[in-house]
Amino acid sequence: MADELPLNWKEPNLPKYDETTDPQEHLSCFENIALLYRYTAGVKCRVFMNTFTRLAQQWFNQLPSESVRSFGEFRSLFLHHFASSKRCRKIILSLFSLQQREGESLKEWP
């Protein structure tokens, strides 16, 4: 994946992925930018890895050299590794399990 960055390339205006947000949302935002600017698969890989903060960057750096052969593979590895950060949809039944503790104000209560 040695595609060159376009001469007029600018870093996308995308918040860095910090492991506390939904990886699918981050990836979707990135893919929209990549589509808009017509990134090749190689450019997608090179640019996407630069949207990570410290821990995500450490994960990327520990991948064996040249082990990622396509953006699709990179995408799958990323989503699999950060799956625990994925936002889960709340269902109405989860509301019934919420309890306010004695002495806990409404402001403190989730």
UniProtKB/TrEMBL annotation:
Domain Retrotransposon gag: 48-108
A Pfam family per the record: Retrotrans_gag
Superkingdom to which the source organism belongs: Eukaryota
InterPro entries linked: Retrotrans_gag_dom
Protein name per its UniProtKB record: Retrotransposon gag domain-containing protein
Organism expressing this protein natively: Sesamum latifolium
